[in-house]
Every structure is written in C-alpha cells, then in structure tokens.
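Dear colleagues,

I hope this message finds you well. In preparation for our joint manuscript, I am sending the GNAT family N-acetyltransferase (Gordonia hankookensis) sequence together with its predicted structure, so that both groups work from identical material. I would be grateful if you could confirm receipt.
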Amino acid sequence: MNLAVTRVDLESFESLPMHTRRCVFWEVDPSSSRTAENEILGEFGSSFESEFDKEAWISGVLLEWGTCGQVAIDGQTGHYVGTAFYAPPGRVPRSGHFPTSPVSADAVLLTSIRTEPGFEEAAPILLDSVVTNLVRRGVRAVEAFGIVRTPAESADSSALSQPPSEHDEVAELGALESISNEMQVWADETIVEITRAMHDSPQANLCTECIIDADFLKDSGFDLVASHPRFPRFRLELDEGLGWKHEVEHALEKLVVMAAMDLAGRERPASVPVGRRQR
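The corresponding structure tokens are as follows:
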C-alpha cells in the first residue's frame, strides 16, 4: 500500500473525509446542545456535527499550539484515507466528560485515529507520525481514551446493511445463550457495573468512530493508567524508548555530517601560490 503522511493544515481541510471534516465530537463543548453551524441554519441536528466548528478548532489550535493532526494520502488516487488528531487536553472540551478523566497535565491527548474502509493499515502509520511529531517538540507523553466496543459497534458496516441469513440468526442465538450462561456466575454488582458502562456515554450522543479501539492502543505499546470496562485511559511515555531513539538517530545524523565534512577537507588538494617554488 503506497501511503504518504503529512500534517493537517487549513489548505487541506476541504480534502478531508466527510466524517472527519464535519464531526466535532471532541472539539465542541458537549454541554452545548447546538453547534454554531446549527444556530446559523436554525435547525437541530447532531450535537457534534459542524464543519464550521471543526475548521475553526483546527485553525485555533494551529495558531496557538501548532500541528494538531496528521493525514494519510493514497499515493495512487491522491485521496485522503486516514486522519489522526491530537492536542493539549485543555483544547479538547470532551476530554473532561469521560469517567476516566482527567488526562495527565504533562500529556498531549490523542483524540482519534480514523481510516477509510480498506485502508486500516494506515492507522499504525498515522500513530508513528503523531509520535514522531510530538517527540521532536519535546512532549513527554501522549494519552488516549480507548473504547471497548459492543458486538454491534465492532461489526462491519457492510455486513450490518445486509439482511441476516439463517446462519447468522443461529450464530446470534448461540452468542446470546453463551452470554446468558456467563451472566449466571456474575455477581449482581458486576452486572450493574457492566450494563451501566456499556450504556452510559460521556454525553447523550456518542461518536464511536472518533474514539480509538482499546485493543489498538494496547497493541501499540500504550500502558493502561485508568481502568474502566467501557472507556479505559492509556498512556505512552515518549521520553522512554521512543524519545531516546529519536535522540540517538539525531546524534548519528550529526556524526555522519561531521564525518563527511572532515573527509571533504582532507581530500581537498593543498594549494601552491603562483610564482613560488614548492620545496
């Protein structure tokens, strides 16, 4: 897969995927029932869908803090097929409404890594670009809220759009029977906790597309710092491992440059002044 990754800027905003360009789940205060765009249009809609507010958020963070997003581009078509956004937690209103809040004061919050269908391989590439950018800027750590998805949320959207077959119905009944058997050995308190965690969201509306899979964060080297059955919080130390790797690479680059300069100086022929005999 031929992918290129570059920083998000205002010039590339119009090329972002539709959902990424419109969703402000993280960027708009969830206590507000209407976004600025909905106020202008005079109509109700999703409380986190506004292209106007998303562009304003990106513009503000770029101006006050710097790069806040990475985008993956398909080298064959030039289409934007993946995005990753991150910012100081103070610039992310939604971050304070999670049960595992707050984000550590020394960390940058990775809000989302989202890829278009068929380009899931872009996710770890986008994460590498985020980490590289933050390491170079001296950021100590990056944190992210993960989501433990329900079976319905994990199902492929294309499969959900098709009518269930007889085989699917049998499999679903089997899964429900299995869950029922497991619940028999659970304590009442456990059932209440899991049920509440699966249905309670940081707000009435929940954009599961813009929350990173907990499994992806664990597989990417993040450590669990705040446990929760639905919204665990993870942390990746950038000054341990990735930080020293960047410093070593930078030091090696300097040594290569210095060695090349020294070699060039040694190979330069000694000049002899005109009219003077060499002894």
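For the figure legend, we might mention the following. Confidence is low (pLDDT under 50) at residues 33-46, 156-188, 197-204. The radius of gyration is 25 Å.

With kind regards,
E.M.
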